[in-house]
Amino acid sequence: MSKKWVFLFEEVNEVEKERGSWNAVRLLLGGKGANLAKMASLGISVPPGFTISTEACNEYYKVNEKFPEGMWDQTMVALKHIEEKTGKKVGDTVNPLLVSCRSGAAQSMPGMMDTVLNIGLNDVTAQAMIKLTNNERFVYDSYRRLVQGYACIVLGLKDEIFEKPLEEYKKEKNMKFDNELTAEDWKVMTEKFKKIVIDHGKEFPQDPIEQIRLSIHAVFASWNSDRAKVYRKKANIPDDLGTAVNIVTMVFGNMGEKDSGTGVAFTRNPSTGEKALYGEFLFNAQGEDVVAGIRNTDPIVSLETKIPEAYKKFIEESQRLEKYFTEMQDIEFTVERGVLYFLQTRDGKRTARAKVKIAVDLVEEGLITKEKAILRVSPDDVDTLLHPQFNEKSQEEARKSGKLFAKGVAASPGAAVGRIYFEADTCEKKVKEENQDVIMVRTFTKPDDVHGMLVSKGIFTNQGGATSHAAVVARQFGIPCVVGASATIIDQENKTVRVGDILLKEGDWVSVDGTTGEIFACKLETIKPDLTKQVELTKLLSWADEICAKEGMRSGENMPSKGLQVWANADYPADAKRARMFGAKGIGLCRTEHMFLGDRSLILRKFILAKEEKEKQNALAELQALQTKDFEELFVEMTGLPVIVRLIDPPLHEFLPTLTDLIEEVSTLRAKGVEDKDKENLLTNVKEMHESNPMLGLRGVRLSIVKPELVQMQITAVFEGACQAKKRGFEPIPEIMIPLVSHIAELKQIQPELEKVAAEVLKKYELDIKYKFGTMIETPRAALTGGEIAHLAEFFSFGTNDLTQMTFGYSRDDAESGFLMRYLQLGVLPENPFKSIDTDGVGKLIRMCVTEGRTQRPGMDIGICGEHGGEPRSIKFASDVGLTYVSCSPFRIPIARLSACHALLK
Amino acid sequence: MSKKWVFLFEEVNEVEKERGSWNAVRLLLGGKGANLAKMASLGISVPPGFTISTEACNEYYKVNEKFPEGMWDQTMVALKHIEEKTGKKVGDTVNPLLVSCRSGAAQSMPGMMDTVLNIGLNDVTAQAMIKLTNNERFVYDSYRRLVQGYACIVLGLKDEIFEKPLEEYKKEKNMKFDNELTAEDWKVMTEKFKKIVIDHGKEFPQDPIEQIRLSIHAVFASWNSDRAKVYRKKANIPDDLGTAVNIVTMVFGNMGEKDSGTGVAFTRNPSTGEKALYGEFLFNAQGEDVVAGIRNTDPIVSLETKIPEAYKKFIEESQRLEKYFTEMQDIEFTVERGVLYFLQTRDGKRTARAKVKIAVDLVEEGLITKEKAILRVSPDDVDTLLHPQFNEKSQEEARKSGKLFAKGVAASPGAAVGRIYFEADTCEKKVKEENQDVIMVRTFTKPDDVHGMLVSKGIFTNQGGATSHAAVVARQFGIPCVVGASATIIDQENKTVRVGDILLKEGDWVSVDGTTGEIFACKLETIKPDLTKQVELTKLLSWADEICAKEGMRSGENMPSKGLQVWANADYPADAKRARMFGAKGIGLCRTEHMFLGDRSLILRKFILAKEEKEKQNALAELQALQTKDFEELFVEMTGLPVIVRLIDPPLHEFLPTLTDLIEEVSTLRAKGVEDKDKENLLTNVKEMHESNPMLGLRGVRLSIVKPELVQMQITAVFEGACQAKKRGFEPIPEIMIPLVSHIAELKQIQPELEKVAAEVLKKYELDIKYKFGTMIETPRAALTGGEIAHLAEFFSFGTNDLTQMTFGYSRDDAESGFLMRYLQLGVLPENPFKSIDTDGVGKLIRMCVTEGRTQRPGMDIGICGEHGGEPRSIKFASDVGLTYVSCSPFRIPIARLSACHALLK
């Protein structure tokens, strides 16, 4: 006996039992077929039909595009079954059976594969249908559709060879829309269409069985069309899924104005998620007419009065379907002379907002578990909800009208509109003094620019990648940002930015889309979601936290005792407040150098350039007073939660002007005979501090060892601040993090010295505050020697940006707008390792380090504070490796909380 | 019974048997005691004596600087034994026994510890000695020496309180040398010295036993003197070795002009290694007088006629000693009234040259094995033999007279004298046109400078470390070089270099010592060893190769089938020839970019700046013709041996002017209103290509992927060259190495493409040439994923410079003259990881990679081609890990060959 390839709708429960799961049924019968069959088995009115399985499709390709053995016979048997069920017969001259032949893969590939309608019509059955329906116009319209569809899909002719003559005919007859054509017109067109097929050397078969056979072939073939293959590659759908073929009895919504019609409906509002039927109905029409927008549709409620019984039934059945599938359904249906038929049901697409609301509502309606609800919302959905966006329509128009100025790396999502300015000071001034909306434009940004960035609505840069300074800071503060827009030519001097012929000057309006990486040379309309009102999101995330804390209770070697927590990268009290509001369980990274920005950079500059010890000490004292206050407020905001303070990390020359700018300036002065001693002196200093590869240079712990006075001041400030907070009744939990360690020897050199300073401050205040000293793991060597480093370090935090940089040997600043972009274009690398953690290489280091670190110091806290801390796949990795927390920018906390829970549930 | 602390010389063979090895005896009795005792046991004439063990010394410190229990009693018994043997008696009024009390540790610490001579003299025994010797002058001279020595060593008084009165006395008496003093004079001085002791509140004991007791205390105490501790720390001698104390009967070479005297002799020439007795003799003198140079000594052969029996015996016995110790001996001896006494024998210090010759000679004399000979020569010795050096005396004088201009990193050993020039072109011109000796001075060097470097005698730079471009190139070509001389202020524009007040101008003479890192502002005398005449070195190294090939036959998992080979880093045919002469078994690294220097850089520049495809193709064709010829000659030179050709590695901007220079130039032109379109255009290009961290930027395989045409040209040239060589009857073995791979995907992208090019060339010539494609492992990620990478790569070569750089996150260019230098000063790191491989971190990666690589591809060739390839400890590591070869610059090959053998033997 040959294998079973063909399944009647009625057989679905049996199949489900046999295959063991609904998912297996969907894999076998495709989404459309499985759902049609399920509806039938639930007693819902579905036109009789059957499904040829995806296995048949795969076998078809295995045996050189022939029907697998037994398939055609089984098809004929199934067809006979339909004939019996409907009392109609294929090719019958009195009561002919018409069917559709529809593709349907397990995963939805909208518009990618083919469907042939009205199969069974020929010159003879058309006459029978006219007699039966008494509607000549309907029959010829259907017939010409079959000829046209068959010709295009089965015979491979082009649609325009039919559409063009039709258009010409309408013009000739002075008609505009298809519904103006009469029965006679369609009859003429049918003949014309048949002739066109012959003229193109093809044949439209009059034999309905032949029509069916060749349509099945065509649907199978459509699985391997170029467009389908491309789509699958992009959507990550395996090529060996195959498509099923559904043969379904035709029903007709175009059998009259009063009691026939066709509709689509969602069981909830797909835009808002509101629990209310949402759909459209078109009287006297066939399925695709609704979508095609040929006439204005009626709201679905209009059925209530016009065909009340069908409406009532539809309401009941659609609710049953939603309950059965425990998900909002997207339903296609037809009413044929008052009889309701369901043609399709599937989980409905919806906006992020609706997704969250529906998931939460379904939990509260008792239909699904919290876990299921959480899994139905993706991190991208949360991302979308957190940032303002452009009105899609106006954005599309701008694209079409040539307003798209440049594209770069989408570095920080969201939409921003403002006037461009080229310098941080100017940006600040324009905002503070003139209350302008500002977009900052820079070749790249430096810490010196941060005061300008913070007040800007958006940022774009010519250089840098997704983890460049601009990108990191922008994400940190939720400022929409596009970096590495390399087509732009920025003239800082003349304050212009140019792409081709378009020249923008200071003060010109642009719109920056940090979600798509686009920059528009115009003002676009934005939509700003109100975060505080996202009640459902808040609820969903609190469930995620609960599950993480509960499900996360894992035991086993080197596993932490709690699930993955989400901490925040936050440098200022305001940041910390926001982080806490967004649900952070601690600060995983407070970058103390960010406290040296704005006016304070001048004090730091004094320290750097000081020639005498006294000058140096004065500068330090000034900085200490400021930092102490910063820390005090930070500890107040984070009372009861750990705050990891990272000692100064960047090279000091970042706080001075850039070498090339200075050389340009000084050379110009010199050539003009102007002597500027300060500038010359500054140049000498900057030259002296210049490094070939600053990323691998004098920064982090190296700086601490070479210039210990700076970090000693910082430690004093941290503990002074903590003591002040404690005296005010708060509970500070300071944890000191030493950056860029490569060798335990570096910690040995500096840590005891700093611990001494801390102890002295606490002694002075006679206060007992718990604290820790730990280190970042950001060089491969640190990761390789984690066991050794854990002798001194009480916690680890992976700085995955630097770690990725050094493990790959890719300078993130250069690579992301350079060869790495090319790699991604060429498909050399499947993804940007600065975006999602490279689990094979960098991940291997992390795993080694976690194992060895926890062997030395069981249960130690280990986290990630690089940019990856807010990226879902990296969070999954962090969870799998058994980290204690991920730390990310406050705005990414909701995404991270969801991802952390996903990591546990998946 | 108390422990045995005191050992008679006669007991030595028993001790050796009991302790199991000669080394254990030396540890117990110290070098001097053990050798004296061994001589005695061999029947060689040694004054009777005994040794108090080093264990006694250690116990002495354990029990708070008291003699350990039983030690003093044992000493008295041993003394009695000597008395019996000599027939003399301590303190005897007729025939008194005089002894010396000498320190002697297991490891020689010359001049660090104390010795007291003539113990046993007092007012009474002096008279007895006068009667016995009939030589009053000798006795009073000896007595005053005892008083003086005892006072200084035991009582802690200062030498000058005795020397000053002696000088005054001589002045008063109008005498110049000590030997002018009469018996009466010495009598007066003896009394004076005794009075000085009392005047300083101390006491010279008349009791000889008390003299012995306190002298032993003093010798023990000298073990822990400050200077001894400092010396031990520097020489890496453990503090718990302790010193032995030797009590030896005094013999006197100052008992007459004819038949008494004292001498020192080496059994071979310590300077040249020649097999001939080499020494001096001083008639009528005591030991230290020879060294003190009080009178001119006679050559040792003068003994032959004057005291023929003693001479004959000395010749016989000294040869016996050399044979017994199988090593050149350094002997002290005394002839007392015609009787020869050996006072000391030890392995003699010698020059590197002598060391090699003696080791080889001893093998050929059948005294030692080849292995032993090899182990007796250190890599530093070989290094010394390979480079010209300054005359030490003139160098020391220059230091003293303030001619030392600056110090930097000793980057490439050897001595160079020449006139300074600041630009590569000028250097080349001065050499080629004016035949000058040139020292190149640069802030740092770039590939563009190489033509100038190659013609220079020496190089010094202001920036960079031991693996900077300047250092690497210099070592490669054996050019003495000092880098990172950061105290220098180089003014390229005015062509001056300044340190403090010393200003050197173009054309001034300097001397560069690449071995010490010193730069002198003067001409120093140099000594140039003739390499081709180093017959013994050549022989020794051939033995090393033999042993490596034989002893290296190791089996076991992931071990190569042969011992560690030494290959060369060589870029040109002349290089290859030299490498082969020095014993290279292949070329491990041919840096093809070095073929783009000089005039050719202009062609490459055309390629880089080309705007049209045709320009680009023309430049490529020009380069290809040149490279093909280069490769052909390289394969000819290396016929039958593998040549690993690395595809272009550095970023292309290295072939253009530096950004800062250009900005300075263009800004100046602009300020002066001069429009230079070419320069402006060049600046735009250079700006575009600028990278923040070029070390982590667009280079290596990344460049190959982004600009495949360049490496395709290179592959064509390699295989065209190989085919040409093959046609001429040579046997080319090309191996292509792809640099800077981080991810197998990069190899997947480029390697098949290049293999295709290679196959096409071979097909064109219809030749069958074996070749391989492999990769450098220089990023941590490559090392971490070695198993994966070995799927495609047929061999690995660790680029340990970059690997160290990225594993530590230390930019070598910045670190070595910056914080890393500070780390080494502070002792944070014990050594520079760019110099000697970091076995814990970088080594861990290498081990992982070797294991995983060879698991995937058993027996694959794996080598090191970084700078570490020529460093002995790194070579040891490479051997231990089971690498196939190390590749180093031709001039380091001899060192590496020796080290590779040491690695196996140690």
UniProtKB/TrEMBL annotation, chains A, B:
Offer an example of a GO molecular function term for this protein.
metal ion binding
Q: What is its EC number?
A: 2.7.9.1
Residue stretches spanning the membrane = none
Binding residues annotated for substrate, in chain numbering: 591, 646, 778, 799-802
Q: Which Gene3D superfamilies match?
A: 1.20.80.30, ATP-grasp fold, A domain, ATP-grasp fold, B domain, Phosphoenolpyruvate-binding domains, Phosphohistidine domain, Pyruvate Phosphate Dikinase, domain 2
Q: Which PANTHER family match?
A: PHOSPHOENOLPYRUVATE DIKINASE-RELATED, PYRUVATE, PHOSPHATE DIKINASE 1, CHLOROPLASTIC
Query: What's the protein here called?
Result: Pyruvate, phosphate dikinase
